[in-house]
Amino acid sequence: MAGVELFSHPALHTRYRAGLCSAAALALLLIAVLTYVPPLLVAYRSHGFWLKQSAYREQPTVRFRYEVLFVATTGPGPGSFLAWSTFPAFNRLQEDRLRVPLLSVGVPGGAGGDAGRVGGARERAAGCAPLPSRSSSLVLAPHGTTLSGQTREEDKNQDGKMDQLHFKLELPLQPTEHVVGVQLILIFSYQLYRMSTLVMQSMAFLQFFSPVPGSQLYMNGDLKLNQRQLLNHCGLDTRYNVSVVNGTSPFAADYDLTNIIAAYRDRNVTTVFSDPNPVWMTGRAADTPFIINATIRYPEEVILYQPGFWEIIKFAWIQYVSILLIFLWVFGWIKMFVFQNQVFTTTPISPVLPLSPVLSYKQHQS
Fold it and tell me: Is residue 360 part of a domain?
């Protein structure tokens, strides 16, 4: 029996044989190429065949580091401002424009309130890391001036991750002083874990200016993640786990807000405080402080990342197979037509069906 079996189908009950160099074999090869190659071209040319980026949602782990840089503008002149920060080197540069706070760390009114207040002040003076706490207050009165504030982080859904920060800062003013602008930097620890592990220090920059002196600034917004670069799908990323403000530098240029913002924006991954509707209140009485009252929320983020090899292959395979199934069905019928109608010469071989037992019995009886 010459040739090899080229085609068979259960519906035809026939096998078709021909030589490897026959026209039927070449036709079968052409049909196979037309079946498997065009779906690949269609999937590729329809764009999105290779997955360039992917996304997932994650609630970041955000904690306020109790590091603050605060500037209150009191007039149009170049030296018309009051400033304070948790960085001793910055405070030493401010001279008479500094109003140094006394920091307390702990729950106000608790049994350990005094110890926390003194210990926190000593740590800040030495430039040490803050004590871990969910609330903090800042109080000091040098030469009759006081800067006070209260902060509190809150886990509203009790999932072990903080959801928002309540920050309140009170700046008592002299009767002749008026606040017309505020610039405030709050520094956070920001971490992602679900895909790649991203650990960085980030900031929220709060700023508002008004031609009318104010009594209070109220802000309520989100600390949003800003990506100019895709994150990796795995591994540890600590490129930006460095301080936003170089708190050990003795040079004034390192504390200039323009330089701080410029260096921070050079990062490919940052956080941005977004509040479309800040509220500037006016009409401050002479004996009342200027108040900053801010709520900073830590929302769930859509994280963009570079997919791994197997995720890319899986996504491409799904697209290819979904188109291939259509081509398999169409060219399956074409092959059946070609071989059943002997478009190309082949040797059909029909199977020898076994004799039915019923028919065999009837023949024996006869």
Answer: no
